[in-house]
Amino acid sequence: MNGVLVGRKEAGKSLGIRGGKIASSGSGCVIDLKGSSIVYPGLINTHDHLQGNYRPPVGPRPGTFYLNWLPWDNDLKASDTFKERSRLSRDNLYHLSGYKCLFSGVTTVNDHFPQKFNGQILPTLPIRAILEYGLAHEASSYDLKWGDGIEEEYKKAVKNNWPFITHLSEGFDEESMNGIPQLENLKILDNHCLLVHCIGFSDEDIKKTAAAGASVSWCGFSNVFMFNVTCKIRKMLAAGVNVTIGTDSSASGSANLLDEMRYDRELYRAMYGEDLPAKTIFQMVTANAAKAFWMQDRIGDLNDGKLADILILKARTEDPYENLLGASMGDIEFLSLEGKPVYGELRFLDILDGKLPSGYTRVTVNRRPMFVKGDPGGLYKMVRNKVGFKKELDFLPFEPDGE
């Protein structure tokens, strides 16, 4: 493949794939991008709840906001969205989420649920949902007691060189704002920690997070939708915190990671009256996220030896970082996972020996015929049949054939 390569140390105009990994050159099929495309590493979403991706989102009554996540959860379970969602199977919801990721260029995601809950289903998705993590729901009395307990889950993460992922300070009641001291009391605050939301962090909490080498997953849309505030993102960046981006579930968050990146940039501008550089956001969804997942030796850039998770976007502007921030689902031309195409324009079928193999189907996106791994069209039809009407899901950019 040739074109502008973003996220590679050596300058060059070609990229090879060998044995599922990136190489300076490969063998076999050659794709000429004719200078009209930009090549990126696959994007990484550090926080989602894959069973929860359904629309419309559920939030507080107009003019109000939540103090923590618990009243939102109560409202969700009493909502029409939840009742409608309950007509679908867990398998349906997880595969919808897999395609939410795929159609927004995401190749790696964390599903913030215990492996006992998701361990059998995540390997069946069309993208990579990591299973190598320890987790807690959060460090407070509202904790849902996921996994083997916060201390055991943390020990497991340290032993295996995995991330330890937990919601923290998701809100700004007194207890939520005490998240970092609670972790310190448990002797759980180091570079294994990936802390999600962090709305209630004080300046001292930010300093301690940076000093510990912990990472943060910023979910700006969900934070503002639920709480009318987000974390002190400028202070986190200034302190050197490894900041990543997550979507949260679409029951409270943005439609997908492309939308989230754009929203977070506009949120930053509204909060501080200055720009958040597109390159900084690119790093949040690639190299920073790979580091937070303890996977920087495998994903996050286009350097030789990394897994060939490759995203190709139509070049609408010369600046590759601005191009990414301006991209929509209709701008994706190709996506691969470990060198295997999972989605793309038909001109990339040469990589698949020129024909659509078993296990792939076609969809039309932005008036372009595309191949895709699996059968999202059939899934979309099944969803509509189960809910009893023509359900619109804004993270699926196509209409099933015949509808």
Overview of this protein structure:
Helix content is 30%, strand content 20%. It has helices at 69-77, 80-85, 90-102, 115-118, 150-160, 179-185, 203-212, 220-227, 233-239, 257-272, 278-284, 287-292, 320-325, 376-387; strands at 4-5, 16-18, 21-23, 37-41, 43-48, 106-111, 128-129, 134-138, 164-168, 193-197, 215-218, 242-245, 310-314, 332-337, 340-345, 360-365, 368-373. The strands form four sheets. A seven-stranded mixed sheet has the order 1-4-13-14-15-17-16.
Q: Helix and strand layout, with pairings?
A:
Elements (H helix, E strand, L loop, with lengths): L3 E2 L10 E3 L2 E3 L13 E5 L1 E6 L20 H9 L2 H6 L4 H13 L3 E6 L3 H4 L9 E2 L4 E5 L11 H11 L3 E5 L10 H7 L7 E5 L5 H10 L2 E4 L1 H8 L5 H7 L2 E4 L11 H16 L5 H7 L2 H6 L17 E5 L5 H6 L6 E6 L2 E6 L14 E6 L2 E6 L2 H12 L16
Parallel strand pairs: 1-4, 5-6, 6-7, 8-9, 9-10, 10-11, 11-12
Antiparallel strand pairs: 2-3, 4-13, 13-14, 14-15, 15-17, 16-17
